[in-house]
Amino acid sequence: GDSVTQMEGPVTLSEEAFLTINCTYTATGYPSLFWYVQYPGEGLQLLLKATKADDKGSNKGFEATYRKETTSFHLEKGSVQVSDSAVYFCALSRTFQGAQKLVFGQGTRLTINP
Amino acid sequence: GAVVSQHPSWVICKSGTSVKIECRSLDFQATTMFWYRQFPKQSLMLMATSNEGSKATYEQGVEKDKFLINHASLTLSTLTVTSAHPEDSSFYICSARPGQGGNQPQHFGDGTRLSIL
């Protein structure tokens, strides 16, 4: 079945460091790919998305490119801030029995130290 | 835009009590809403998919008589945890998707932390 695998956390970086959180997926067909962010005690917020191969999603300095050849959607940011500390979820969207559903990775907890 | 409100955000109750959680899409119509459960430091587990005006579709292993879902309008879905017990304690998150699907993203509520004593 469809699945999403993220790099294990927690990830701890200093402010202004470069961030990469790896995400790979297994899916039939061509799913849409998403990154969601969850701040402490809150629900998930859509960070960025890509709907087809070679699309690049970007938002708030974060980027991810849909790589069909490597089935990856790695999240990157050039210079992280303390306020980026959160849990990040990679997800794919698939249609099952006529309904579109999200399949989430296990989440990666990111802590940015000042 | 695309705001989803979930209420209550936190509830503590005694074992055996039934608890209702509401999920509202505030500025869009949501044909489909989803209910997730999240255990501490783990990912979201889809419990059920709720379509307006029809019965919810439950994921394998989720007890439909335990977790009652009602989606009576295009802006409101409710999850009732019946006769809750300590093992039902968890973080419950709803999401809503505008329109008829396609590649529309889901928009999430802020979650409800349920603690059963």
Task: Indicate the percent of residues in helices of chain B.
Answer: under 10%
Average pLDDT metric of chain B: 90
End-to-end distance of chain B: 37 Å
Overall pLDDT level of chain A? 92
Percent helix among the residues of chain A?
Answer: under 10%
| Structure classification of chain A | mainly beta
The largest β sheet of chain A comes out as: 6 strands, mixed
Shape of chain B: globular
Kindly state the number of beta strands of chain A: 12
Strand/helix succession of chain B:
EEEEEEEEEEE
Radius of gyration of chain A: 14 Å
Q: Total number of helical segments of chain A?
A: 0
Spans of chain A with pLDDT under 50 lasting ≥5 residues? Answer: none
What does this structure look like?
The complex is a heterodimer of chains A (114) and B (117). Chain A is an all-beta fold. Chain A contains no helices and twelve strands. In chain A, strand 7 and strand 8 form a beta hairpin. In chain B, the strands form two sheets. In chain B, strands 2, 4, 5, 6, 9, 10 and 11 form a seven-stranded mixed β-sheet that branches. Chain B has strands at 4-7, 10-13, 19-25, 30-38, 44-51, 57-58, 67-73, 76-81, 90-98, 107-108, 112-116. The mean pLDDT of chain B is 90. Chain B is mainly beta and 117 residues long. The interface between A and B is medium-sized, with 24 and 26 residues.
Brief characterization of the structure:
The complex is a heterodimer of chains A (about 110) and B (about 120). Chain A has about 110 residues and is mainly β. Helices cover about 0% and strands about 55% of the residues of chain A.
